[in-house]
Design a protein that fits this description.
- The protein has 276 residues and is of the alpha+beta class.
- Helices cover 50% and strands 20% of the residues.
- The strands form three sheets. The chain has a three-stranded antiparallel β-sheet with strand order 1-2-3. A three-stranded antiparallel β-sheet has the order 4-5-8, with helices on one face.
Length: 276
């Protein structure tokens, strides 16, 4: 049957594939739209298999909180090139996946991939389809959620970095403070909320490094451990969120800033994803 420009455009609108890919799929399927969509999906799977070992270090990170501030999502969809990441269509794809996550609130990346994207595809199938459209490896590399009395999202310009913080108060004051702390997380990259959140392996490594440095500096071995523990305290102060100096006022810690803003206010959880 004759394939019209209208048919090609219709398939293009449904899939986002290029005009020639849509025309060829319609020709191959003899004008059957469902079969043509399957052909394009299989093309995406072939490209995905071919490019599976490629590095996908570019992409976009988006964080978003619900209007009531009780729930938030942060995710990263990686691609291979900066050219693709800056394309409006790619941004729309990432945002559409965020929209699915915000609506259905899956607990993990695998659960998100299994969700229905539209009336044809799951999220995972949509990503595979778009691999065929874009011609690059795509990878939903990071995904997390936070539920709290107030969740605040921060997206750094360029969407290469985003953060999500949860607070124990739902007030407007908490919202404003949360925004500042979300920017702190972006800038200072803490490894945990407080020292209790630092894993034992990291602590052991820091103590060993501290001991070795003390010995190299000529300190007696029996003093090395005490010196190492002192350095560990400094490590906690620099690398755990509540103990860090507040970037807008280094005379107080983040914990002190929150307490001065609203009595008892604190951060319950945070997430930070970066592509660099």
């Amino acid at each position: 049957m004759a394939i019209t420009a209208s048919d090609v455009n219709k398939l293009r609108q449904q899939t986002g594939a290029g005009m020639m890919d849509c025309k060829n799929a319609l020709v191959e399927s003899n004008g059957d739209f469902e079969a043509a969509i399957d052909i394009l999906r299989k093309k995406g799977q072939k490209i995905a298999a071919k490019r599976g070992e490629n590095d996908a270090k570019e992409g976009l990170v988006i964080a978003e909180a619900t209007e009531d501030g009780a729930f938030g999502v942060i995710l990263a969809l990686n691609c291979e090139t900066d050219f693709v990441a800056k394309n409006d269509g790619y941004r729309a794809l990432v945002q559409s996946i965020v929209d699915v996550a915000m609506k259905q609130r899956p607990a993990s990346a695998d659960a998100l991939k299994a969700l229905t994207f539209d009336d044809r595809l799951t999220v995972d199938e949509k990503i595979t389809e778009q691999i065929g459209v874009i011609g690059e490896k795509l990878d939903l590399s990071s995904y997390a959620t936070i539920s709290a009395d107030k969740v605040v999202a921060y997206n750094h310009p360029g969407n290469q970095l985003a953060t999500l913080v949860g607070l124990n108060s739902g007030t407007d004051v908490a919202q404003d403070a949360g925004k500042q702390v979300a920017m702190q997380v972006a800038a200072m990259n803490p490894i945990a909320l407080d020292k209790d959140g630092v894993d034992a392996r990291t602590i052991e490594r820091e103590i060993e490094i501290g001991k070795d440095l003390a010995i190299q500096e000529g300190k007696a071995e029996e003093m090395a451990e005490k010196i190492a523990l002192g350095r560990l305290s400094k490590f906690f102060k620099e690398n755990t969120l509540l103990s860090q100096e507040f970037i807008k006022d280094n005379k107080q810690t983040v914990e002190q800033f929150l307490g001065s803003t609203e009595k008892g206010l604190t951060i319950t959880e945070f997430k930070r994803f970066s592509l660099s």
